[in-house]
Amino acid sequence: MALSQRFDGYLQPFANLILLPVAVLVSAWIVTSIAKQWMQSRKQRSQPVKVEAAAVSEKTSIIEPLHGFDWKTAPRRQLRPFKPTYHITMAIQSNIPSELITIDEDYLDRITQRRSIIATHGSTVHGCIPGGDAAVRELYTYLLSEQLPKRFPTIFQLSQDNSSCMNLATGMSFPTTPQGSTDAALRVLGETIEEDFFLLQQTPDGHQSIAFMCCFPSGFDPSTKLGKTLVEIHAPVPSYEKIGSSMERFFAKLEVGKSVKRTNWSVQTHTELFNCQGNHITGDDTYEHDEDVDIEKTFLRIELQTLTRLPKTSAVLFSFKTYLYPVRQIKEEGLGSAFADAIEGLSKGNAPGMWTS
Question: Which chain regions cross the lipid bilayer (predicted)?
Fold first, then answer.
């Protein structure tokens, strides 16, 4: 029986990055478990380099306000980026500054969860190296004083003297310029927006992670990425060498006022957004209990990622919002065959290492 047929009828039983440069990344042990049962069925640091920031054009810097926006009724995006054959590429699309931050009906629940994660996990989910403070403060000031109140005036309102920003959804008010430590500024951002982010600065050794806020990691410890370069961060990624140089050049040439976006996807067999381990398996690692998976708790996990350059510090902002879609929903949409083909297609493109056999 074909894999797509098995998926459309629901496989019974269904098998139990920062900055990942792939359009599609399926968590390896999940893919292997799914594939195993399907196939058995068939067969039986350094100092920053100064980057000249380009002038921001009036057109690209405009933030278009969403007047009358009601986050409580705003539907979450429905993203389906999987393709039948996987090729490792940057797969970027143009974006606009207005869409740097997105808000939908899940906003308050997600922010409440993020606040709890920050309080519980501390330095695992946020941090900054010496030299990263200025970029954090620039991002903080831009979001609290400009982007959020301009884009979402029904949620974020500035005080008369513009010294504070009130979040009407959470009831919290924060100063529009950071008043305390860099870590405190990161925590405010983590409790204000859903997007996780890493800030990177160009150095002689490549772009280096200088600060981060990441409440929803997918199978990695974000604190271990701090201070590392793109090459070091992506060392576990199969075939990264095919696009590593291109990524460095793209980051270096990214202009102020321009923004790009991309997506990646994975599969997880639990409902957790915060997951520092357990989504990936590589090399000679092993896994057990393929069959112990509840299809009702299996999700397609998608990150909507953006890249933007900050104008003052020239740091690159890599941000991403995480979406979870029940696999049952994918089947009900009639995309079961396409999804199954995409999983099989991991082994057919230019990065077969994405498929763990």
Answer: 14-35
What are the domain boundaries of the chain? 3-102+195-354
Kindly tell me the number of DSSP H helices and DSSP E strands found in the chain.
11, 10
Instruction: Report CA torsion sign: 293, 305, 19, 283.
Output: positive
Q: Residue 236: how many CA atoms within 13 Å on its side-chain side?
A: 17
Token pair listed for 185: 């500024």
Q: Which residues of 316-351 are buried (b: 16+ CB within 10 A; e: fewer)?
A: bbbbbbbbebebeebbeeebbbbbbbbbbbbbebeb
* Contact by Cβ (8 Å): 148, 107: no
- d(C-alpha 287, C-alpha 354), whole Å: 16
Contact 148, 192 (CB under 8 A): yes
- State which residues of the chain have pLDDT below 70: 1-60, 85-90, 238-239, 278-292, 346-357
- What pLDDT does residue 250 have? 92
